[in-house]
Amino acid sequence: MTPILSVIVPLHNAGNLFIPFLESLIAQKEKNIEIIIINDGSTDGSGEIARHYCEEHTFITVIDQVNSGVSIARNAGINIARGKYVAFPDADDVLAPEMYSTLINHAESNELDVMQCNGQRYWESNGELTPIIPPKRLESTGVIDGVTFFNRALKTQRFIHVVWLAIYRLDFIIKNNLFFEPGLHHQDIPWTTEVMLNAERVQYLSTPLYRQRIHQRSISNRVRVGQANVEYQRHYMKIVKMLTALNDQYSEKIKGFPMFHWQITREALGICHSIRREPESSAQQQIAHEFYQHDIISDMVRNTYGIKQGWQVMLWLHRLKKWHQPLRLSVD
Q1: Quick one: 85 exposed, middle or buried, by C-beta within 10 A (0-12, 13-18, 19+)?
Q2: Pairing relationship of beta strands 33-40 and 60-65 according to DSSP bridges
Q3: Average pLDDT, the chain
Q4: d(C-alpha 240, C-alpha 301), whole Å
Q5: Backbone angles phi, psi at 51, to 5 degrees
Q6: Which letter, b or e, does each residue of 21-43 get, where b requires 16 or more Cβ atoms within 10 Å of its Cβ?
Q7: Could you tell me the pLDDT band of residue 331, with boundaries at 50, 70 and 90?
Q8: pTM, two decimal places
């Protein structure tokens, strides 16, 4: 039987959180699914756990690859997926048993390109649960186009660019060549943006059906200082450039939707705040230098939207001078 859903799971050293994640997948009420685990060079025994589950369950496939990053793992899964829809959960999170049955029912009933739900954050440090998107800020929708949904979601200023809260129609992804950027941290940001710029039929459900675990072992939550932070901020600079290019490419679609511009400036301001928090002065100066070198400063200024964001940009135009020392050429 052809599966209705292909669940694509990049796996790299998920540790003791991997088994609860797998159990939550196996417990899904929707049984017509395939699980594709891309073992991305795990060295902590996660790959062996995946293969054990594969031996026990015919709907699980494990593909081993050398450590190449989450984007290449997801792309590899897309290339072999057989389902009508695909999903991309993280291997250290937990899904409600009704998550995929709920999303599929909506997607099938309304012929959707994307069906998204809400989720919760589980803070491992204190056991607290908080909504990922506050329900009062973003309520459930009917069927709308992707640009309208994304503009509405960004207006909440609590929306996060993640792929794991939704299912996506596979032929929609293939038709629009929506693959993940290799080697890019937080590749979800440009990917989800381009998805919504192409999607014609989208629906959102404010019910939380996914639980994101917040823990210090996560790559996203890792503290980086010095050269590690410099290299990390380069990813965000690339994201700013990718978002700027998308805005130019889809300029006709986003006329009258200022939040697409707002998100570019938000990402650029995030780089500014990383400079302020960086304890090493040489790293501060390097990030600031590259901020100007790649003309992120212009992207930040020309995409500013609203009084609050405009005020923040004005402050940072002044503050950045503290760290930015233009390179001077010696004259003989």
Answers
A1: buried
A2: parallel
A3: 94
A4: 12
A5: -65, -35
A6: bbebbbebebebbbbbbbbbebe
A7: very low
A8: 0.93
User: How does DSSP assign 118-138, residue by residue?
Assistant: EEEEEETTTTEEEESS-TTTS
Q: What is the pLDDT of residue 151?
A: 95
**Tokens found for residue 327:** 């390179």
CB under 8 Å to 69, separation ≥6 — which residues?
40, 182, 183
Question: How buried is 122 (Cβ within 10 angstroms: 0-12 exposed, 13-18 middle, 19+ buried)?
Answer: middle
Q: Which residue has the tokens 């233009």?
A: 326
How buried is 63 (Cβ within 10 angstroms: 0-12 exposed, 13-18 middle, 19+ buried)?
middle
Q: Which residue has the tokens 């600031």?
A: 288
The closest alpha carbon to 240, from 319, 165, 298, belongs to 298
Tens digits of residue pLDDT in 164-216? 999 999 999 999 999 999 999 999 999 999 999 999 999 999 999 999 998 66
CA-closest candidate to residue 275, choices 259, 260, 297? 297
CA 71, chain centre distance (Å): 11
Task: Report which of 262, 212, 116 is spatially closest to residue 254, judged by C-alpha positions.
Answer: 262
- When pLDDT is cut at 50, 70 and 90, the band that residue 45 belongs to is very high
3-state secondary structure of 64: strand
- Tally of CB atoms within 10 A around 221: 10
CA gap 181, 8 in Å, rounded:
16
CA distances from 194 to 8, 254, 274 (A): 19, 12, 26
Contact yes or no for 96/212 (Cβ under 8 A): no
**What tokens does 154 get?**
């960004």
pLDDT band at residue 118, thresholds of 50, 70 and 90?
A: very high
CATH of span 5-214: 3.90.550.10
